[in-house]
Design a protein that fits this description.
about 160 residues, about 15% helix, elongated, 4 helices, 6 strands, three-stranded parallel β-sheet
Length: about 160
Amino acid sequence: MKLHDLRPAKGSKKDKKRVGRGDSSGHGKTSGRGTKGQRSRAGGGVPPYFEGGQLPLVRRLPRMRGFVNIFKTQFATVNLDRLNERFEKGAEVTPATLSEVGLIKSPDGLVKVLGRGELEKPLIIKAHGFSATARAKIEAVGGSIEELALPADRPRRGRRPRPL
């Protein structure tokens, strides 16, 4: 067998239907569109959402408002009162330890510490973000803060990644 011997399977190739080429073609006169009506005319027909004149579903539903920022950085949040309950004095708090005690789902995500509640013991907290009140309360009780770097593949909120 050579390249010039290759042929498509029988019946797999069909000629294009040529309409409007005279009555003897079998598709003459009205060209398979029937007689009269909206779909028989050039440019006629209805859009896909048309429901026969009934108010379409897309118009019956409330409109979608605003937009979703696809570049937003999602943080798992932890408040100081929860840290106070779960950790002993001087403990090191990292995303891995937060996941172990059940305060966040995954140790791989980004973590932000928020300032709700009171912190009564000094802790060494390592997270990707801190609110200003959380930062102040942690330092007030003698704790320390280490801000972890955001991964390079995650753009900061609102910033688009540079094109390649």
